[in-house]
Inverse folding.
């Protein structure tokens, strides 16, 4: 199964890149349902305390493990950001047993039903507790976290405050996935289904992704709108998505364009309640 998702030899196709002094990405080829060239990405951020936060971990190859070692080797947190991004948390937790795991409660329940490795979630987010969980100071010093319980995939998004970087899984796609397929013989732009997905999930122009967010991704509109409003209050210019190329600058304007309807709805709701 993993070869269909990430290719037969992830060590040869992963692109490891330092984005900032504190952030390193691991970009890999990834085919959704074996057809759509989405690409995948893990983001490794170094905390001010020296520990590492690993967001949406990809396959733990020797090269990736060596990168972790070069960054200090102390994985403090593993973030499984939604119900789709979790297949590698077992191997990472086994390799770094002291790491604390952050994820949505529905994901833990899904993994139990599927018979995945039993990886306990130290911080398990639900609609009921999302505003009451207190994360450790070493994490909150560098990160803001928002759990999108109104999103179809139950997203957890992070803001790396020191660099103004939004790190997210399936909130925003930025296809085509050039970097993620750059070390393969696969053209990230070609293929009928790939062109369809590129039309839906480009962040550069048009309203296709905006419509998808409004009509497809937002299952609990009121909560989704509130989460969009919270992120709109964050200071960021860069967006690191799991699928597609990194948005190196202009990320806030891109976010506001894609979530414009949700932000307007949140503003209207706020006016009604005053």
């Amino acid at each position: 199964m993993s070869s269909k998702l990430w290719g037969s030899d992830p060590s040869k196709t992963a692109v490891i890149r330092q984005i900032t002094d504190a952030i390193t990405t691991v970009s890999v080829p990834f085919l959704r349902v074996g057809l759509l060239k989405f690409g995948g990405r893990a983001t490794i951020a170094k905390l001010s305390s020296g520990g590492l936060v690993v967001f949406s971990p990809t396959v733990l190859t020797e090269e990736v493990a060596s990168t972790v070692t070069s960054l200090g080797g102390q994985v403090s947190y593993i973030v499984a950001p939604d119900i789709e991004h979790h297949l590698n948390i077992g191997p990472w937790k086994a390799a770094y047993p002291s790491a604390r795991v952050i994820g949505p409660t529905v994901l833990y329940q899904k993994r139990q039903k599927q018979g995945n490795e039993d990886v306990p979630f130290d911080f398990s987010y639900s609609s009921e507790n999302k505003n009451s969980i207190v994360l450790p100071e070493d994490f909150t010093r560098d990160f803001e976290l928002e759990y999108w319980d109104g999103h179809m995939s139950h997203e957890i998004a992070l803001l790396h405050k020191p660099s103004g970087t939004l790190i997210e899984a399936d909130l925003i796609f930025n296809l085509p996935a050039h970097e993620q397929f750059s070390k393969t013989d696969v053209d990230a732009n070609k293929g009928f289904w790939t062109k369809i997905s590129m039309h839906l999930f480009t962040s550069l122009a048009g309203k296709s992704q905006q419509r998808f967010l409004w009509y497809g991704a937002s299952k609990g509109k009121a909560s989704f709108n509130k989460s969009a409003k919270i992120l709109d209050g964050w200071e960021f210019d860069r967006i690191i998505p799991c699928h597609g190329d990194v948005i190196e600058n202009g990320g806030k304007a891109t976010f506001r364009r894609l979530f414009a309807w949700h932000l307007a709805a949140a503003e209207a709701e706020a006016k009604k309640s005053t």
Observations:
- The chain has eleven helices and 13 strands.
- The CA atoms of residues 17 and 25 lie 5 Å apart.
